[in-house]
Amino acid sequence: MATMAECRSALDTLSDNLAGSDGDVRGAADLDRSLSCHIRDLDVTFTGRLANSRIQVLDTHDGPPREKAEIRLAMTGDDLVAMVGGELNFAKAWASGRVRLEAGFRDLLKLKSLL
């Protein structure tokens, strides 16, 4: 099972990957939205913002998200680490229910190019 430190590191790596991308991926991540990522097996939530094609983690707390973020993710720590490491395909994990992504309709349309 992935640790909290490994999950935080994976989010930092994902942020770096988004910031270093170009074309459609960078355009899809170029939003300014509140973000939460609930790690179900650790029962911890990272909260922050997706802004300027970067994920800025601002807080971490126990339990599910306290407030409804504009973009909400939920998954296990192992799945987060595997996705960022390229071992798990996000679209397949989302389609199978291993990863949950919730956002407004327009944001989902924009984020779909990340899949």
Helix and strand topology:
Elements (H helix, E strand, L loop, with lengths): L3 H17 L2 H7 L2 E8 L4 E8 L2 E9 L8 E5 L1 H8 L5 H7 L3 E4 L1 H7 L4
Parallel strand pairs: 1-4
Antiparallel strand pairs: 1-2, 2-3, 4-5
Helix pairs in contact: 1-3
Describe the structure using short key phrases:
single chain, globular, five-stranded mixed β-sheet, alpha+beta, 115 residues
Structure notes:
- Helix 1 (4-20) packs parallel to helix 3 (77-84).
- By secondary structure, this protein is an alpha+beta fold.
- It contains five helices and five strands; from the N terminus they run H-H-E-E-E-E-H-H-E-H.
- Strand 2 and strand 3 form a beta hairpin.
Q: In a few lines, what is going on in this structure?
A:
The chain has helices at about 5-20, 25-30, 75-85, 90-95, 105-110, and strands spanning about 30-40, 45-50, 55-60, 70-75, 100-105.
